[in-house]
Design goal:
This protein is of the alpha+beta class. The protein is built from four helices and six strands; from the N terminus they run ααββααββββ. Strands 1, 2, 3, 4, 5 and 6 form a six-stranded antiparallel β-sheet that branches. A hairpin with a 7-residue loop joins strand 1 and strand 2. The N terminus is likely disordered.
Length: about 180
């Protein structure tokens, strides 16, 4: 009997949940009153492992060097927004000035994007950005290489030169733009 009562309560709650999530159409006049926030945020935890990267010199005296057990680990936060052509030109221009160009030089480079057919100066652009999220530096991506070895698989050629790591790769402020052409 107790099971039957619990089943009835569960069925009633489920039916309420389904009816509450029913889709209804909305008219244009009602839709004009709806507001929202544009953009999307993405966060991720990187855990990439690469067995080895090998460079081989193919000339007569060539040899090879291997970077073994490469790991990329850390976290990131990214936003995705749509920029109209005016916002895109302003954002890219500011980035160019931030890299040392004068405002006039930035404008010349923006014009070159259009003249060379790279951007039509009308399309919307998708912006991927790593915002200043003020996260603990220990969470930022880091790259490590467990060992660096010379030559092939013989015992004499597999001595390690050691390892290296690039820690706390801070991507905050980085922007990537994408558009169709």
């Amino acid at each position: 009997m107790k099971f039957l009562k619990l089943s009835a309560v569960a069925a009633a709650l489920a039916s309420l949940a389904f009816s509450a999530s029913a889709m209804t159409s909305i008219g244009d006049d009602e839709l004009s009153q709806v507001s929202g926030q544009d953009g999307v945020s993405i966060a991720g935890d990187l855990n990439i492992n690469i067995g080895s990267f090998r460079y081989t010199d193919t000339d007569a005296n060539g040899g090879s060097v291997s970077f073994n057990n490469i790991g990329i680990h850390g976290m990131f936060v990214m936003t995705v927004d749509i920029l109209n052509h005016t916002a895109f030109a302003s954002t890219v221009g500011a980035s160019m000035v931030g890299h040392g160009l004068s405002a006039a030089e930035a404008q010349t480079n923006l014009t070159n994007l259009v003249v060379n057919g790279v951007y039509d100066n009308a399309s919307d652009v998708v912006q991927f950005a790593f915002p200043a999220a003020q996260q603990d530096a220990r969470l930022t991506p880091s790259i490590s290489v467990a060992s660096i070895t010379l030559g092939g698989n013989t015992a004499a050629n597999t001595r390690s030169f050691g390892s290296f790591a690039m820690n706390n790769i801070d991507l905050q402020g980085t922007k990537i733009w994408m558009w169709a052409h």
